[in-house]
From TrEMBL:
InterPro entries: ExsA-like_N, Homeodomain-like_sf, HTH-like, HTH_AraC, Tscrpt_reg_AraC-type_HTH. Keywords: DNA-binding, Transcription, Transcription regulation. GO terms for molecular function: DNA-binding transcription factor activity; sequence-specific DNA binding. Residues 190-288 form the HTH araC/xylS-type domain. It comes from Paenibacillus radicis (ex Gao et al. 2016). This is AraC family transcriptional regulator. It comes from the Bacteria.
Length: 296
């Protein structure tokens, strides 16, 4: 088994330098264009509204797949890992053009304060879906294009106003999508075991897991210890190391790829905690396992 394990890059923290508008503590918007097929994996640290202007951007999460095409958009909630494939189509000269709007909770709270949208809780979760982009939203996106030419000259207050304008345009265009956005603010407590098992090998922090479970960090840690009889950080690190040991001894995957596939941020940290637990480096254990296999 020698396949490459792709790392789930944290977004927007590790957003490639493509064309960005950043505002301190609130939001990031990115716009970029490619002509060739690109694939990858992202861990979303913020809610994302993906708007495709040209080409195709396919998002996969678990068993779900969302192909987003020209003049379409999809809303993705934070705290999930997605795989993507993006490319330009032949009839548009293979151009891919899209924008990603990262919607922080603070922005959504402020919008709800100043809008007349009802804040009553929705009983059933609304599943993610691909929505059409109407002319008003297309005009809004076009109005942002000049800002990407000199992003350093755009003031934070203007970006904030433009992000609020986006939400008002969505409210006017698609109430169903706005209901999805409303649900992002209604994080409900989720089974801790389910959250941990689902995200064990993803590059998530305890803060991320607490958010996904709908709890504060201190409450998450306290309830985790009651369930697992061990501090969360220690238990998660040990489970990741056990999975890494399985991959190292039963596959030909490189040590770097194993570290990325088991939720570690980098190979140096992985090697450090590995040696602390097992007493030898990952490469030494692999060599020892290979020698034992030959002798056997």
């Amino acid at each position: 088994m020698g396949s490459i394990i792709s790392k789930a890059v944290k977004m927007p923290q590790s957003l490639p330098s493509v064309g960005m508008l950043k505002m301190k503590g609130l939001s990031v918007m990115g716009s970029c264009a490619y002509s060739d097929i690109k694939t990858g994996r992202m861990y979303l640290q913020e809610h994302v509204l993906l708007v495709v202007l040209e080409g195709v951007y396919i998002v996969r999460h678990g068993d779900e797949e969302y192909p987003v095409r020209k003049n379409e958009m999809v809303l993705l909630h934070k705290g999930i890992v997605i795989d993507y494939e993006k490319y330009g189509e032949e009839d548009s000269s293979h151009v891919l053009d899209y924008m990603m709007f990262f919607l922080k909770d603070e922005l959504l709270h402020e919008f709800m304060k100043i809008s007349n949208f009802p804040s009553s809780k929705l009983e059933k979760p609304i599943p993610a879906a691909v929505h059409s982009v109407n002319e008003r939203l297309l005009s809004y996106v076009a109005s942002l294009k000049p800002y990407f030419e000199q992003p350093e000259g755009v003031q934070d207050e203007l970006i904030k106003l433009k992000m609020l304008e986006l939400l008002f345009d969505i409210l006017d265009a698609d109430e169903g999508l706005m209901n999805q956005i409303l649900q992002l603010r209604q994080q409900r407590p989720t089974n801790i075991v389910e959250v941990v098992e689902k995200n064990l090998l993803n590059p998530v922090s305890l803060e991320d897991l607490a958010y996904l479970s709908g709890r504060s960090l201190s409450t998450f840690k306290r309830e985790f210890r009651k369930i697992y009889n061990e501090p969360a950080f220690q238990w998660i690190r040990n489970r990741r190391l056990e999975k890494a040991k399985e991959l190292l001894t039963h596959s030909g995957i490189s040590i770097t790829d194993i570290s990325l596939a088991t939720g570690f941020e980098n190979v140096s940290h992985f090697s450090k905690v590995w040696k602390k637990k097992y007493g030898v480096s990952p490469s030494a254990m692999r060599n020892r396992s290979a020698a034992e296999l030959v002798e056997g």
